[in-house]
Amino acid sequence: MSSKNDNIYKISLQDKDYPAILKEISDPPKEIYVKGKILEKDKLAVAVVGTRNCTPYGKKIALDISGKLAGMGITIVSGLAKGIDTYAHRAALNKKGRTIAVLGTGLDKKSFYPSSNYTLSEKISKQGAVISEYPLGTRGAKHTFPQRNRIISGLSLGIVVIEAAERSGSLITAMLGLEQNREVFAVPGPIDSKYSKGTNMLIKMGAKPVAKIEDILEELNLG
To answer: Is 48 within the bounds of a domain?
Structure first.
């Protein structure tokens, strides 16, 4: 399927252009809608996710980690939500790097959520890709955003969680990553911050703590 107005096209699971790494998960989407381009180099990808209501600390770390990874040629994958996701995408763009945004809605402007990030999505589509498993015209629902998280982790070698409350979509992404045999990383934060409870809990559960970019590179053999 394609739209001349939006330059959106569809890739089916059987197509040679379907991301090989995404085929590895137990329930890959049968088709994905794409605005932009998914390239062979995007197989070297790291997901950077976190809370919508991030602190200045979270913003700083998201910009720093995502910018450094993107500057090394590693694709940044995230969900284009407000907060950490937004800063992860922006950092990659600022470094002239690749980034992929995975939506929980259709890719058309009418369905797009959050609407405040539509302009950012246009920039991403020129320097990476905006993708969704949902057809054009699909509005977001309670199940669509958690469901899309398996694609965020599925496209990535590892998932870095930067600030997450105890109950957070980012933690869903991390758990899905574990099920998919992806490496899970978490940035430690202040013990009195509700937005660090999720990340500190992940570390207690065995996630790799991130103090510097090398912690990610070494674990993924990208250094």
So the answer is: yes
- What angle in degrees, to the nearest 10, is found between the helix axes of 169-179 and 144-154? 50
Q: How many domains does the chain have?
A: 1
Kindly give, in sequence order, each residue whose CB lies less than 8 Å from that of residue 133, ignoring residues fewer than 6 positions away: 29, 30, 31, 32, 33, 147, 148, 151
Kindly state the DSSP code that residue 149 receives in the 8-state scheme. H
Only one residue has tokens 């394609």, namely: 2
- Three-state SS at 78: strand
CATH number at residue 154: 3.40.50.450
Q: What is the pLDDT of residues 66-86, one digit of tens each?
A: 999 999 999 999 999 999 999
Classify residue 36: in a domain, yes or no.
yes
Whether 180 contacts 153, CB under 8 Å: yes
Q: What is the pTM of this model?
A: 0.95
